[in-house]
C-alpha cells in the first residue's frame, strides 16, 4: 500500500512551483464561483422570475462566457497573461458583490453577461500562463493538475454555498464569492508576479499564424464542440433520466455524480502519466476518449438494470479523463505557431458554445423524443466527433509526411 501511495505521489513530481500556485489560485477561484450552481434557484425563489426569464438570463451567462474567452485571448496577446489574470480576478470579485443589488430582468441580463465576460477572460490567460510555466514534457500533467483543482473547487463550492445560504442567505453568498475572487488575486500578485516567477517555455513568434486559418485547429475545435455537447448531458439531461426512469433518490443521484469527481481525483494523474509514455499520439488519445464517452450513452439503451448507470458513469469519466487533458495539451502545442491567446481563447469558446447549445438541445430532444431516442442521437453526435478526430489524425499525418518529403528533397 505504501509503494502504491508513493507511486501515486511520484506522478505529481517535476511540475514547477508556479504551476502548483496556479492550481491553488484556480482552486480558490472555482470554489469561489459557488453562486453559479444556485443562480437558477436564486432567480426563481428569491426574485420570483419565470422559468422563461431564467432561461434568457442563463443564455446571457453563456454569451458572456463566449465574449469573455474571446476578449481574454485578445488581451493576453496584447498586454500579457499576468495582467489579464489580475484584472479579471479582481473585477470578477467586485462584480459578484455588485450582482446582489440587481433585481430587475434587464439589469440582471446585463449584470450576468458582464460577470461572465470578465470572469472568463481569465481562462485563455491562465492556459497561456500554464504553458509558460511548464516544461514541454510536463504540459499535459500540468493541465491535469489544473483540472484536479477545478474539480475540487466545483465539488467544494456547492457544499459550502449551500451552508452559506442556510446561515447568511443569498446576500452572504455573493459577498463571499466576491471576496474569494479578490483573495485569489492577492495570491496571484504575491507568487506569480513576473519579477518573482520563472518562465520555463517562453514562446515568441515573429510572424504568428492566425488560428482562424489553421485548418487542423478548425477541425479540432468543431470536434471539441461536439464532445462538449455530449459530455454536458451528464449535468443536464442525465440527472433527470436517473430520477424519472430509474427512480433514484437525490442522495443516490448525488453519489453517482460525485463518483465522477472522486474517480478523477484518484486516477487521472497516474492515468495521464502512463498514457504520456505510451506510443499513442494526442489525437489518438482524444479519439479513444470520445469513443468511450459516446459509448456511455448507447449502453443505457441495452438494459433497464440500474447498475448500467454505474457502468455508463465510469465510461464517461475515463473518456473525460483522457479527452480533456490531451485536447488541452494539443491546443497549447498548436498555439506555439501563432498568437497563443487567440488559440486558447478559441479552445475555451468551443466549450462555451457547447454550454449555450448543449443543455437546451438535450432538454428539447428528451421532451420531444424521449430518453432512449435522445441517447441514440447523442451517440450519433459522438460518432461525428470521432469521425472529425479521425479526419484530423489523417490530415496531420499527411502534413507530417509531406514535410518529411520536402526535407529529404532539400537534403
TL;DR?
This protein has 411 residues and is mostly helical.
Structure description:
It is a single chain. With 411 residues, this protein is mainly α. 79% of the residues lie in helices and 0% in strands. The chain has 2 domains: 190 residues, Growth Hormone, Chain: A (Up-down Bundle); 209 residues, MFS general substrate transporter like domains (Growth Hormone, Chain: A). The chain is built from 15 helices and no strands. The longest helix has 53 residues. It starts with a helix and ends with a helix. The model has no long low-confidence stretch (mean pLDDT 84).
Mean pLDDT: 84
How would you sum up the major sheet?
A: none
User: Do you know the CATH topology of the largest domain?
Assistant: Growth Hormone, Chain: A
Report the helical percentage.
over 70%
CATH structural class of the largest domain = Mainly Alpha
Number of helices: 15
The radius of gyration computed from the alpha-carbon positions, rounded to a whole number of angstroms, is 21 Å
Strand tally: 0
Low-confidence stretches: none
- Give the overall silhouette: globular
Total domains, how many?
A: 2
The assigned CATH architecture of the largest domain is Up-down Bundle
List keywords for this structure.
411 residues; mainly alpha; Growth Hormone, Chain: A; 2 domains; globular
Ordered list of secondary-structure elements with their pairings:
Elements: H1 2-10, H2 17-32, H3 39-46, H4 51-79, H5 81-99, H6 105-119, H7 122-132, H8 139-191, H9 215-231, H10 237-244, H11 250-276, H12 282-298, H13 308-334, H14 340-369, H15 371-410
Helix pairs in contact: 2-8, 4-5, 4-6, 4-7, 4-14, 5-6, 5-7, 5-8, 7-14, 8-11, 8-13, 9-14, 9-15, 11-13, 12-13, 12-15, 13-14, 14-15
Amino acid at each position: 500500500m505504501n509503494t502504491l501511495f508513493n507511486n501515486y505521489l511520484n506522478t505529481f513530481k517535476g511540475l514547477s512551483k508556479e504551476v502548483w500556485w496556479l492550481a491553488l489560485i484556480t482552486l480558490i477561484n472555482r470554489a469561489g464561483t459557488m453562486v453559479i450552481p444556485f443562480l437558477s434557484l436564486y432567480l426563481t425563489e428569491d426574485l420570483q422570475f419565470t422559468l422563461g426569464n431564467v432561461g434568457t438570463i442563463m443564455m446571457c451567462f453563456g454569451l458572456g462566457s463566449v465574449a469573455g474567452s474571446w476578449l481574454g485571448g485578445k488581451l493576453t496577446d496584447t498586454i500579457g497573461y499576468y495582467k489579464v489574470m489580475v484584472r479579471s480576478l479582481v473585477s470578477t470579485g467586485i462584480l459578484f458583490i455588485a450582482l446582489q443589488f440587481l433585481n430587475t430582468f434587464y439589469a440582471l441580463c446585463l449584470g450576468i453577461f458582464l460577470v461572465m465576460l470578465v470572469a472568463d477572460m481569465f481562462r485563455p490567460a491562465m492556459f497561456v500562463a500554464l504553458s509558460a510555466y511548464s516544461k514541454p514534457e510536463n504540459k499535459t500533467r500540468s493541465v491535469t493538475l489544473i483540472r484536479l483543482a477545478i474539480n475540487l473547487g466545483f465539488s467544494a463550492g456547492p457544499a459550502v454555498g449551500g451552508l452559506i445560504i442556510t446561515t447568511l442567505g443569498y446576500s452572504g453568498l455573493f459577498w463571499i464569492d466576491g471576496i474569494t475572487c479578490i483573495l485569489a488575486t492577492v495570491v496571484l500578485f504575491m507568487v506569480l508576479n513576473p519579477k518573482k516567477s520563472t518562465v520555463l517555455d517562453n514562446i515568441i513568434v515573429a510572424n504568428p499564424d492566425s488560428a482562424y486559418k489553421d485548418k487542423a485547429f478548425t477541425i479540432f475545435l468543431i470536434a471539441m464542440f461536439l464532445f462538449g455537447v455530449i459530455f454536458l448531458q451528464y449535468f443536464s439531461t442525465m440527472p433527470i433520466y436517473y430520477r424519472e426512469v430509474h427512480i433514484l433518490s437525490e442522495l443516490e443521484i448525488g453519489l453517482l455524480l460525485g463518483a465522477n469527481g472522486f474517480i478523477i481525483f484518484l486516477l487521472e494523474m497516474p492515468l495521464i502519466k502512463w498514457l504520456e509514455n505510451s506510443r499513442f499520439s494526442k489525437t489518438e488519445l482524444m479519439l479513444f476518449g470520445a469513443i468511450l464517452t459516446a459509448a456511455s450513452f448507447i449502453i443505457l439503451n441495452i438494459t433497464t438494470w440500474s447498475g448500467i448507470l454505474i457502468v455508463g458513469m465510469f465510461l464517461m469519466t475515463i473518456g473525460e479523463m483522457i479527452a480533456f487533458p490531451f485536447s488541452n495539451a494539443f491546443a497549447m502545442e498548436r498555439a506555439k505557431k501563432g498568437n497563443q491567446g487567440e488559440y486558447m481563447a478559441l479552445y475555451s469558446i468551443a466549450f462555451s458554445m457547447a454550454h449555450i447549445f448543449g443543455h437546451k438541445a438535450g432538454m428539447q430532444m428528451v421532451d420531444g423524443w424521449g430518453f432512449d431516442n435522445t441517447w441514440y442521437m447523442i451517440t450519433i453526435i459522438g460518432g461525428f466527433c470521432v469521425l472529425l478526430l479521425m479526419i484530423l489524425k489523417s490530415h496531420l499525418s499527411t502534413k507530417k509526411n509531406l514535410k518529411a518529403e520536402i526535407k529529404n528533397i532539400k537534403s
